[in-house]
Design brief:
This protein is of the alpha+beta class. The protein has one domain (about 20-150). The protein has helices at about 1-15, 130-150; strands at about 20-30, 35-45, 50, 55-65, 75-80, 80, 85-90, 90-95, 100-105, 110-115, 120-130. The strands form three sheets. The protein has a four-stranded antiparallel beta sheet with strand order 4-2-1-11. Strands 5, 8, 9 and 10 form a four-stranded antiparallel beta sheet that branches. The protein has a three-stranded antiparallel beta sheet with strand order 3-6-7, with no helix packed on it. Helix 1 (about 1-15) runs antiparallel to helix 2. The longest helix has 20 residues, at about 130-150. It is elongated and about 75 Å long. The two termini are about 15 Å apart. About 20% of the residues are buried.
């Protein structure tokens, strides 16, 4: 009975630690109209409610972004995305050293920034996935329970 309670306690602890992958679609407009769109996804690793550049998993700005393909490898900087308010902050470095861009690429030569553009965003998915540490803890508890049962 004690072993069963220990196992249930460990199981409850492991099920609460999940990472969440957020996927977002965006559209860029300028004074002349539609300029481009794309998507990005990331995992809020520090659980602060914000996706930052180092938490991105993917970035695809290939739809009309100055006729270029902008992907995660090509990004120079990325503004923080507030998950709760669905707001992409224009706090990435733009063409100069000022922080007024949503994203910058091509070694800071190109940027979508607040001086000429507006950006709208839509969260397309918010999926909780078990964190690797959670899965490891669950596996460890199962192994421990099996060993304890064999000792008896």
């Amino acid at each position: 009975m004690k072993n069963a309670l220990t196992f249930l306690t460990l199981l409850l602890l492991t099920t609460t630690a999940n990472a969440t992958i957020i996927s977002v679609d965006f559209e860029v407009t300028s004074s002349t109209g539609f300029w481009g769109d794309g998507s990005f996804s990331g995992e809020d690793l520090d659980l602060d409610g914000v996706l930052s550049f180092d938490e991105l998993i993917s970035f695809d700005g290939s739809d009309n972004i100055e006729g270029e393909t902008v992907d995660l490898a090509g990004l120079f900087d990325f503004g923080d995305f507030d998950i709760d308010s669905n707001t992409w902050l224009s706090n990435a470095f733009g063409w100069s050293t000022t922080e007024n861009a949503w994203f910058t690429w091509n070694n800071q030569i190109n940027s979508v920034n607040a001086s000429w553009a507006t950006v709208s965003t839509t969260i397309t998915s918010d999926v909780a996935v078990p964190a690797p540490a959670t899965m490891s803890l669950l596996l460890l508890s199962l192994v421990a329970m099996t060993r304890l049962k064999r000792k008896k």
